[in-house]
Amino acid sequence: MEVIATINRAKYDAFKWRYELSIPRKLILALGMAGLTGLLAQVRFYLPWSPVPITGQTFAVFLAGVLLGRWWGGISMAIYAGLGAAGVPWFAALNSGTGYLAGPTGGYIIGFIFAALFLGYLTDRYIRSRSFFSMLGLMLFANFVLIYIPGLLQLGLWLNLVKGEPATFNTLLRMGAIPFIAGDITKAVVAAAITRGIIPKRAYNGEVDKDKWAKWRLRY
Length: 220
Fold this sequence. Notes:
Number of helices: 9
Strand order of the largest sheet: 1-2
Radius of gyration: 18 Å
Number of domains: 1
Number of strands: 2
Order of helices and strands: HHEEHHHHHHH
CATH class: Mainly Alpha
Largest sheet: 2 strands, antiparallel
Distance between the termini: 19 Å
CATH architecture: Orthogonal Bundle
Structural class: mainly alpha
């Protein structure tokens, strides 16, 4: 029991420390998470029928939202998109520039910002969101709604304007969604398991449900 109490105390101290950091130090953490996203972007597989590669980026997005919290997870992804557009070669296949961001995968990268903001806000504000199944559900929503929708919209626009090809709904699903579903679910499960073990199950920044969390089952 003492070991468990020590671990829980360490998790609480770490997240409270993260919440109370100065802005320059939070920026350093955000830059580090942006760097991890760029690193996982190099873990890529291209499909013959799609300009969108399979990468490990969404795993970093999930972690950024939960570990950096409200605003800063999204800021880390904005740093990733902004510095990549400015010339830092950390998009997939070491690409960079505004041309890449305006290409077939740019919408997904913009979606990373929305997804990390969403996850950071909810997990920072609600203790109940920190169970495994709650986080898994939030991550799947962030992935399949907040990342896929802008990704598919820009992919369709790119196909129409650049390739001159009709972007039917079935075509978009075949190129930009269906091949990635199994991998994204797997990444969400792993990320939810990791963050469930790391994030404390007690209030560290005035969570709105801090007086109710003990009534809920948070073990899973």
